[in-house]
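Extended Data, panel c. Modelled sequence:
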Amino acid sequence: MALVDKLIQKGYLKTPEIIEAFRQIKRLDFLPASMAEGNETLQELAELDEALPIGWGQTISQPLVVAFMLELLEPKGGEKILDIGSGSGWTTALLAYLVGQGGRVIAMEIIPELAEFSKANVAKYNFIKGGVVEVIRGDGSKGYPQEAPFDKILSSASALKIPQAWQEQVKPGGKIVSPIKESIWLLEKTSDSQFKKQEFPGFLFVPLQTTSR
């Protein structure tokens, strides 16, 4: 059974639009070619439901986790979303597919080489040329005030707490989905300074890298 079908069967993929994004945006296109040096091909690796190393101490997230987070975030057409820790660009491209031509995804990656890798991978789907995605090399913990406010914010790296910048830069009625330590948190902004919060424990992520020392 194909990976997407397994995620549907297990109940992690539910929303038709998100299922379609997973079918159209191939994880294979976001893996480093050097990973195929072992016994398994890139195609075989792409179908594994596990996080995989992409270099510089970072990973492409486990598909189950990406599905779970996107289902919590509920990206919609026309929205502007901040994607923190774009890594190889897979989550960025999934978001771009979901927001569509009328939407925007600002992807932030602090590691210069990964920012370029992400940009090259996302470009395979015309999202950059089409103006849907912009990849920014920078400290995602500070958000991106130049484009704020955002409808939604997604982080693929674990922080010790939700940065104040994200809380300020998401619109009232908007959502933040982010790992904090070993839990995924959903924050829904109910007013200018109030959030409804839900915790989903039992996950592992790479730590959020910042320029702070």
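Helices lie at 3-9, 16-24, 42-46, 63-73, 90-99, 112-123, 164-169. This feature is highlighted in the accompanying rendering.
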